[in-house]
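TICKET: design request
STATUS: open
ATTACHED STRUCTURE:
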């Protein structure tokens, strides 16, 4: 399933949906109400609440989704036009966003960085998550606004000290995430050769974690190391980034294992798995007002966000 959280207008409550086909979305709460003649459970309010409901909630979502797809539910109100909805981040409302650095061989080679024995994580704040279609604020405090496309792993159940062998049992699914950076806010030292970075302001200004467009459940992507990655600007023809998840050095199993070593992972938490080479920092082509950023991963879809100057 492709699970999404959406609203139909600025005053409506959030709803849980699944992408049906083309521009059509199944409203799972409405489908449940029509089929069962009963009020839908709170699980169907959002992806965040569904993940907190565990396997029982996910199984019910699959059942209702199948009924709607099979037209067992004969009611047009179950289906919503995607062009008439507003997307919301398909992750936990208070998700920890754990981002791993230099996790692709191409990125490490281009920067002259050696592979570390263990993954190195930094954290983004949950309030930075921005949905598909939403504008990204070009901060007044930075003139070097950069983005890095990454595969997001979304955690499906609570766990700590998770073994490598059991890691995928804790994965609900995948999404596209853009790790935004503000390159002129990175140095703690005026020495240009200093390796000391100000990770918080480099990575944590408003809107710095666009994610979406939906969560694709793990069963639909049996091999997460066979996904093509591309980042483009709609107003420019050439690729800004391209690669394959095959290039990951620390695999998803390792990332889940290390991330949970002393830290409890909760349903809806996000692990951003790193980016391939050719980030804007190397090209010296930073984002600007009017750009439309398209981050796409095969078998998941495209996360599209316009860039707008802060006023």
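STATUS: resolved
RESOLUTION: sequence designed for all positions
ATTACHED SEQUENCE:
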């Amino acid at each position: 399933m492709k699970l999404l959280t959406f609203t139909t207008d600025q005053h409506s409550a959030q709803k849980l949906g699944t992408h049906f086909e083309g521009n059509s979305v199944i409203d799972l709460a409405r489908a449940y109400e029509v089929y069962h003649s009963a009020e839908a459970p709170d699980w169907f309010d959002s992806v965040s609440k569904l993940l907190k409901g565990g396997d029982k909630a996910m199984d019910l979502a699959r059942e209702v989704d199948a009924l709607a797809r099979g037209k067992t539910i004969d009611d047009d109100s179950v289906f919503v036009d995607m062009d008439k909805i507003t997307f919301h981040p398909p992750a936990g409302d208070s998700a920890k966003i754990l981002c791993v650095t230099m996790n692709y061989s191409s990125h490490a080679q281009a920067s002259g960085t050696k592979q570390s024995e263990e993954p190195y994580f930094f954290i983004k704040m949950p309030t930075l998550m921005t949905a598909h279609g939403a504008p990204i604020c070009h901060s007044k405090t930075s003139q070097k606004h950069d983005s890095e496309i990454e595969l997001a792993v979304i955690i499906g159940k609570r766990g700590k000290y998770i073994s490598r062998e059991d890691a995928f049992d804790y994965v609900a699914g995948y999404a596209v995430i853009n790790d935004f950076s503000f390159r002129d806010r990175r140095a703690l030292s005026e020495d240009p050769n200093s390796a000391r970075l100000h990770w918080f302001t480099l990575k944590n200004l408003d809107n710095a974690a666009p994610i979406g467009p939906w969560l694709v459940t793990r069963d639909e992507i049996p091999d997460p190391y066979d996904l093509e990655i591309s980042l483009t600007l709609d107003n420019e023809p050439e690729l800004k980034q391209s690669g394959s998840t095959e290039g990951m050095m620390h695999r998803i199993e390792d990332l889940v294992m290390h991330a949970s070593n002393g830290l409890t992972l909760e349903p809806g938490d996000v692990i951003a798995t790193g980016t391939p080479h050719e980030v804007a920092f190397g090209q010296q082509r930073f984002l600007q007002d009017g750009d439309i950023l398209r981050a796409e991963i095969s078998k998941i879809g495209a996360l599209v966000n316009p860039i707008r100057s802060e006023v």
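CLOSING REMARK: The first helix runs from residue 28 to 36. The helical segments are 28-36, 47-52, 54-69, 105-111, 199-203, 252-259, 280-283.
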